[in-house]
Write a structure and sequence with these properties.
The complex is a heterodimer of chains A (about 120) and B (about 110). Chain A has about 120 residues and is mainly beta. Chain A contains no helices and 11 strands. In chain A, strands 2, 4, 5, 6, 9, 10 and 11 form a 7-stranded mixed β-sheet that branches. In chain A, a hairpin with an 8-residue loop joins strand 9 and strand 10. Chain B contains no helices and 10 strands. Classes of the chains: A mainly beta (about 120), B mainly beta (about 110).
Chain lengths: ~120, ~110
């Protein structure tokens, strides 16, 4: 069973950037569609973007286009998401989640990373 | 852009009762790309149903999904104490690729 382990909580200043990592336990890393989903306090789930390491294809939600950078490192089976120009509204729990096929749903999730943006 | 609207916003029921959660799409969608998730505070969301009606691995058979077109339903028959959580429907499509409904909170009455 694949597991996802995310980096730890972070506190950032407005205007700065944060990079969250998501390490998978090995098999078939490059063929997964690795996605990033966030939940702001009191809000629902919001898809931010995703990457298929095998093809290098990256998709972003329009809301986050230009401010979110998603990468994947095959050598460490780790995906990264960097959010720039942070504002307090970016305070949220950020999750990575993978699917082997989009018709199978987001089957496996990381534990979540709390990012707090505060001056 | 497809918008998913879930109802009710909050559902208050007792253990043992049947829960019926609705997810309505703003236009016809393929049931192949409709999923349901359970989300508890402090935990990661858990995939319950994919393809509108297929249970994910390890999901008890009291959870069932149905629907087509624009109307989809998650039914939980015989609520257990651990079922009280927030439930989201999700569709894979275009812009955004993964769109979530706003959620239904299932609370203990």
């Amino acid at each position: 069973q694949v597991q996802l382990v995310q980096s730890g909580a972070a506190v950032k200043k407005p205007g700065s950037s944060v990079k969250v990592s998501c390490k998978t336990s090995g098999r078939m890393f490059s063929t997964f569609f690795i996605n990033w989903v966030r939940q702001a306090p009191g809000q629902g789930l919001a898809w931010m973007g995703g990457i298929i390491p095998f093809t290098g294809k990256i998709e972003h939600a329009q809301e986050f286009q230009g401010r979110v950078t998603i990468t994947a490192d095959d050598s460490t089976s780790t995906a990264h998401m960097e959010v720039s120009s942070l504002s307090p509204e970016d305070t949220a729990v950020y999750y990575c989640a993978i699917t082997e096929s989009v018709d199978l749903g987001l089957a496996i999730w990381g534990q979540g990373t709390l990012v707090t943006v505060s001056s | 852009e497809i918008v998913l609207r879930q109802s009710p916003g909050t559902l208050s029921l007792s253990p043992g009762e049947r829960a019926t959660l609705s997810c309505r799409a703003s236009q016809t969608i393929s049931s192949s790309y409709l999923a349901w998730y359970q989300h508890k505070p402090g935990q990661a969301p858990r995939l319950l149903i994919y393809g509108a009606s297929s249970r994910a691995t390890g999901i008890p058979d009291r959870f069932s999904g149905s629907g087509s077109g624009t109307d989809f339903t998650l039914t939980i028959s015989g609520l257990e104490p651990e079922d009280f959580a927030v439930y989201y429907c999700q569709h894979y499509g275009n812009s955004p690729l993964f769109a979530f409904g706003q959620g239904t909170k299932l609370e203990i009455k």
